[in-house]
Amino acid sequence: MATKNKEKLDNVVFSYATDVSNLEEENKFLRETIEGLRKEIELFRKPPLLVCEMKETKGDKAIVRLQNGNEFLVDLSSGCKGLKPGDSVLAEQKNLTVVEKIPVSKKFNVEKFVIIEKPDIPWKAVGGLQHQEREIKEVIELPLKKPHLFRKVGINPPKGILLYGPPGTGKTLLAKAVAASTNSTFIEIVASELVQKFIGEGAKLVNEIFQLAKEKAPSIIFIDEIDALAATRIDIGTSGEREVQRTFMQLLAEIDGFKNLGNVKIIGCTNREDILDPAITRPGRLDRKINVSLPNDEAKREIFNIHTSSMKLAKNIGVDKLIRNMKDFSGADIKAVCTEAGYFAIRNNRHQIKEDDFLNAIEKLKEGRDEDESHLSMFG
Predict the structure, then answer these.
(1) From CA 144, how far away is CA 158, in angstroms rounded?
(2) 264-270 and 160-164: which strand pairing?
(3) DSSP string spanning 85-141?
(4) What is the 3-state secondary structure (H, E, C) of 171-215?
(5) Going from the N-terminus, what domains does the chain have, and what CATH number goes with each?
(6) Contact 251, 214 (CB under 8 A)
(7) Strand arrangement, sheet containing 160-164
(8) What is the pLDDT of residues 304-315, one digit of tens each?
(9) 67: number of Cβ within 10 Å
């Protein structure tokens, strides 16, 4: 009997000891959870730090620039040593005291904001632009393929060129063809989008685009609508105008930073060469200007033959008559005429394109242009 009571007592004591141990473990877990929640609440209450750019250090003080462009003279905390202009730092929000330096990292994944490709457009696909083709080969293709020739002669080729002329005349086509002939990476930027989308960050993005071009060299940076960024400078007024100027100055700095015989070339493209700032076209920058104008009748015929080479044409099509009807048409317009003529044939369940299909396509394109002009005159 005494033995049984002792066993029961031992079991009760063991059970209590186990319960106490479990409770202590649970209590420890709860204390850790409460401490973690307390720290999280403190983080929520703590004001955020500002990301700034170091402009200049002055002993225990520094000039920093905020992302909105404002600059301040601020204090440096004791742990901030070895800071250099251009470093990214964290600053306390109330009085902008610099707390610490942060690692340099890319602001953007720049490849998301530009078009990068390896074009496969051969020179034979470029019609009616023999003069422009010869010039762009001299300035872009030859230095990339045979830089030793320039070293032997002792001259430096231009760093880039400016293609200008009406829309649809083949400026982009020329740029892609020379990229294909030199096996270069083609990096396309639309300057108007750069200005509109990246207020406050345009200059940094330009810097990263040029870094990308160096990494993927040989490469060609194609800047479409460059007039949106490089128009003649006026008195700086709004913050948007100031940002455009900062981005433009960064572009000039990047162009100046390239060696003449480097394997990165810049091609600017614009419909408004008359409004460009002379700084972009001065010697040493985009100093070779190539006019890509509307095609003459001979060029139109060549472009027409290129775009109809794979089409099934009826016999006795009067090409001369079609060319006469395409007055003031660009290369892009002629391509559109060929495509639209094909649609006329398809609508009539034909595989062969007749002369009337081309004439109807020309008239349709002219009507569309007249409507566009009337809309512009209404709002003009």
Answers:
(1) 12
(2) parallel
(3) TT-EEEE-TTT--EEEE-----SS-GGGSSEEE-----GGG--S-HHHHHHHIIIII
(4) HHHHHHHHHHHCCCEEEEEEHHHHHHHCCCCHHHHHHHHHHHHHH
(5) 50-101 (2.40.50.140), 110-291 (3.40.50.300), 297-379 (1.10.8.60)
(6) no
(7) 115-117, 185-190, 219-224, 264-270, 160-164, 288-291
(8) 999 999 999 998
(9) 13
By the 8 A CB rule, do 160 and 266 touch?
yes
Q: Is the C-alpha dihedral spanning 245, 251, 252, 257 positive or negative?
A: positive
Tell me the whole-structure pTM to 2 decimals: 0.70
CB atoms within 10 A of CB 59: 6
- How far CA 168 is from CA of 206, 261, 323, 328, in Å, comes to 26, 31, 17, 11
DSSP conformational letter for 290: E
Q: What is the CB-side half-sphere exposure of residue 171 using CA atoms within 13 A? A: 25
pLDDT band with cut points at 50, 70 and 90 for residue 370: low
31-61 pLDDT tens trace: 888 887 787 776 666 778 888 888 888 878 8
Cα distance between residue 148 and residue 143, in whole Å: 8
